């Protein structure tokens, strides 16, 4: 699966890399709710994708979580996995890796003129540097 290609296409179609704007355009419902130790999760009800984002996160964390869950909504529509606060970035689970890759590609996208950036999210999330450097210095 070529995730970068998928993300580029998405960003070009919607002319933004803002996950909230893309979600709205795609009919994906995003809700901010109290979730305790869960960053967010994605579910599907009656063919509608719903993204739940923990309301107590910082804005940057919410943007990253929304992007990660959008990755699931697009790449794994029938799977529902909670995105946990601890250790998820080091998960070996294929779908978690793919959702993280989707989120990073989206937030580092150069397909738009004024992209929102993930720098602060990287700091607050402690995304494994090797995940990121692979993208910046391939
Ligand atoms: Zn996930």
TrEMBL record:
Domain IrrE N-terminal-like: 23-116
InterPro entries: IrrE_HExxH (IPR010359), Rad_response_metalloprotease (IPR052345)
Superkingdom of the organism of origin: Bacteria
One Pfam family linked to the record: Peptidase_M78
PANTHER family to which the protein is assigned, alphabetical: ANTITOXIN HIGA1, BLL7220 PROTEIN
Protein name according to UniProt: ImmA/IrrE family metallo-endopeptidase
Organism: Oceanobacillus jordanicus
